[in-house]
Amino acid sequence: MSARSEPRWPGSVALVLASSTGGVGQHVRSVARGLTAAGVSVLVCGPVATQDQFDFTGVGARFAPVEIPASPTPADARAVAALRRALAATGVDVVHAHGLRAGLVAVLARPAAPLVVTWHNAVIAGGLRGRLSRLAERVVARSVRVALGASSDLVERAAALGAADARLAPVAAPELPSPHRRRAAVRAEFGVAPDRPLILSVGRLHPQKRYDILVDAAARWRVLTPPPLVLIAGSGPAYLQLAARISATRAPVILLGHRTDVADLLAGADLAVVTSDWEARQLFAQEALRAGVPLVATAVGGLPELVGDAVVLVPAGDVDAVDAAVRDLLDDDPRRAELARRGAAQAATWPTEADTVAALAALYAELVPEPSTGKT
User: Fold this and answer.
1) Is residue 300 a contact partner of residue 279, using CB atoms and an 8 Å limit?
2) Which of 65, 64, 141 is nearest to 100 (CA)?
3) What pLDDT, in 10s, does the model give residues 260-293?
4) CA–CA separation, 308 and 313 (whole Å)
5) DSSP, residue by residue, 232-287
6) How far apart are alpha carbons 287 and 306 in whole angstroms?
7) What is the enclosing helix (H) or strand (E) of 6?
8) Domain segments of the chain as ranges
9) pLDDT digits (tens, 9 = 90+) for 301-318
10) DSSP character for 194?
11) Yes or no: is domain 183-347 CATH 3.40.50.2000?
């Protein structure tokens, strides 16, 4: 999906999301901002914490609290009821859920309007949770009018599960603001000397991100002169385990928690690293390439098609590969400069936020050519 024209669809849409502290919430905020600016009436339904973090009302959308946790719980029945009430009170032309959890709640709410669900993540969990998630995938795929995938493998997955209409819908990373601080000031915050490499990773502290691999690789870099410092920005359920691992291995890693100055952090970084077991269109990977920071990333999910030949790709779960790739790049200034150049060129090929919004508006218009509930 890509379009350059301005969206012109005077209808209304409910954007539904579950608990989110990262990419999905940012994407929904971006879509809400673009659609409202184009005259679409937008209702966002999700946990109160998402409104607190992403401020959907601040970009022109209305907000209705629907508490959808990240994992299935008995409270899902209350979420379904809350979503039904929100949709009945407002009336919308299209319901667009983001992520499997929100998609399942939306399916169970049985909206009268056409239902679109965007697959943002693959199911990689095992055991009972994995089985339940795969069952939910199948239910959602067979119940939606259109299944959108943030990467080609997700589109194939939705189609294989029975989606009658599965399409690619790349998720554009919101443009970062210009850095507010100079490189030296950012590095001074962490006591990093000019000749010491600074390595950055940004994302939710979740097992899928495999930050344990990055911590173990960083522990090996203590023998380098000078040893690189690794910064990991983000919050999430794996914080305590990662902190314990950092302490046990004496790895030169700092967990920064949630940060709003990623542009500044990138300005101070020499290298970016993504160690995830799976990603679609990872937002930090996009931010790093746009900022001209060389990237080492795992060759998983949609990352290879996203980054092309502009990064160093390594196998997932391979600490030796991460270790070797980072050492090689730190010792090769011309190679890092070449990757920075390629990264900027690759980023120029990606759909923008405006492209994403226009494509979604076109999809809504396809589903509801003559909306009745939006603004006129």
Assistant:
1) yes
2) 141
3) 999 999 999 999 999 999 998 888 999 999 999 9
4) 9
5) EEB-STTHHHHHHHHHHHT-SEEEEES-S-HHHHHHH-SEEEE--S--SS-HHHHH
6) 12
7) none
8) 12-172+351-367, 183-347
9) 999 999 999 999 999 999
10) T
11) yes
